[in-house]
């Protein structure tokens, strides 16, 4: 994978070693099974390292081409698929979602009460495509455990862990028949917006989301190990999910008694799903995700292909909120709704590293996945970094530690 | 010392002379005893000037390698030391201080009353290492919040102008602090404080080294800062510049209690050091404890200006320097400050990790560039870096009290007006 010495692109080999110290520390303490990390600058891969185990129980070491569940790192891929259709004229950002799913026409907005007994008010305006792309739709997630609206989702059987097994019609019905948490465009809230978006794309394109993403994103970029599941011939590279023992759901606690990392198997990643989740359903490898990130860094170009125009990449990676996520969020979601970051389309955009309390560059964009994966692209530094691992739920701050380790490796100075 | 003609780096030799006019004026009026001034641009030293005396009583001329009490110019060095550990992954800026110092877990905030009988409320949030570095921790100095918290600090034995140097350790100081109320919840306001002592102690806890050992190993030795330390060893004793109380100033209580202090109203009065400066202290104050020379401080400043790079490698990465030199306050020092502080709380100036950041020279009412950063020391020393102009300047002198003269700003003006290209 490595194509150049770090020093050729203004980075220090010695300092990059700190990435290995970081990941090895997690593995040695038994906090993670294994990791793959990658850093690329100015088109050169200067760090790619697999550490620890892909499968502890089967004694399979981690490998650079391991396949991981992307969870929310699916969202940027869905965004790309959407914006390809945008460029082809299928929608404008202010096109109402009801144009494709009429049930979204007259959504009610939650106005107080409990999940059983609540009041609603009329929405101030209809939900549009931009709301889905930027999580300002008023939709929420059952997994937030913050409001009566996410409780309503759960009561109706919408549980994120079962999403892949649902019928998409049932999923859409639950969302459209439950009040919105807020009127579209008035707040930011992490949500099933990307999954609804995925289904809207299916309706627009007349194909299933997996086929659409394969033909419009993965095939053109050569992301051959990226999809909504890994077929059997790739299972030896597919990482099982580890679950942090102390956070196991009660029904699994007995089975994995006392284990720090519980191997709960492949879950949704080794077979086709009935619902292709545009918000979290995909699997990928670090080299495939590098292709996506490289396309972003190169303003839509990958090799000879121009997947998206530079103007569209700019639009995706611009903050669409009036301030940072924290100041516009409906629920304080901690690291998912941080200070100092705005939100673009399916990813956060660094506005102010000082406010975000971390080393970085204004204009850098990133997102993470629930398995502790993370990526970021820094146009100013011409930098891409990706970390893949496979532990749920999100308990560590390894994405921030990884970002720190990457950025502190830049040693070039602009003063001679 | 001078390595290049000013004209070769876009400065005017004739205009630079105004720095000498300035410092010589102070000396001729008897307001300071002596000064050293230094200006470097594009890594060339174009001005290095000793004026006046380093000891009035013995008429000893200021010498290039004179050692100065740099007081708060210690803070940027301690901040850099902390960021070395940040780069090694030991903490994030939002890591709670209590992760390393458990006594900082459930802090209380002063909520009215007298120093003897006061109320507190729980702090709204945990104090983080970022709060310490940006002086938004809620800690203070006894000489700032004099009416309420000041006496509380004094009674607890954490006051600044008292000779604890050879009596306490950094741990004692931090232990004492942990039992005192904050002046506000961490993150709410900016307030100058003893926070960098806590940072110094964090460095000890994380590294397992004493602060002086860590600074020596990670900063002073690599950069060749051979004359910077928390004391002046016997063999360098003669190089320590004397310290004076400004003429016409009240004699502060803490000074009058000094042995050997003799007040000369109307002229400079020599202030004997509180502690024995020739003996290594046990209380290694990361906020104001260091002594240094112009050449040593220049090595430090130029490393920051060169984005962390020095001849042997990188002290810090460039992105870390960027993070340190960004404004971390929601506004400027005026809008963010808990209590105004003479000479420090100015409009148009923000605060980074350990020093002030110029945001807007128009608002700050002075020549400069957005992004330039500086911090003074309590004896009217000053240092600034201007990345855009690739400029470093240092002024050292030894006169008390801080904020009395405008010499730091006058020096800055004299330096900037010398740029002609």
Shape of chain B: globular
Percentage of residues in DSSP E strands of chain B: 15-25%
- How far the N terminus sits from the C terminus of chain B, by CA atoms, comes to 23 Å
In this structure, how is the largest beta sheet of chain A organized? 8 strands, antiparallel
Please summarize the sheet with the most strands of chain B. Answer: 8 strands, antiparallel
Strand tally of chain A, please?
A: 17
Q: What kind of oligomer do you see?
A: heterodimer
Strand order of the largest sheet of chain A: 3-2-1-16-15-14-13-12
**Termini of chain A, distance in Å?**
32 Å
Poorly predicted regions of chain A are: none
Note the run of SSEs of chain B as H and E.
HEEEEHEEHHHHHEHEEHEEHHEEHEEEEH
SSE class of chain A: alpha+beta
Compute the average pLDDT of chain B.
95
Q: DSSP helix count of chain A? A: 13
> Strands of the biggest beta sheet of chain B: in what spatial order?
3-2-1-16-15-14-13-12
Question: Shape of chain A, please?
Answer: globular
Percentage beta strand of chain A: 15-25%
Order of helices and strands of chain A: HEEEEHEEHHHHHEHEEHEEHHEEHEEEEH
CA radius of gyration of chain A is 21 Å
Helix content of chain B: 25-40%
Question: What features would you describe in this structure?
Answer:
Chain A is of the alpha+beta class. Chain A has 13 helices and 17 strands. In chain A, helix 2 runs parallel beside helix 6 and helix 2 packs across helix 7. Chain A is globular. The model of chain A has no long low-confidence stretch (mean pLDDT 96). Chain B is α+β, with helices and mostly antiparallel strands and 421 residues long. Helix content of chain B is 28%, strand content 17%. In chain B, helix 1 packs antiparallel against helix 13 and helix 2 packs parallel to helix 6. Chain B is globular, with a radius of gyration of 20 Å. The two termini of chain B are 23 Å apart. At the A-B interface, helix 1, helix 12 and helix 13 of A face strand 11 and helix 10 of B.
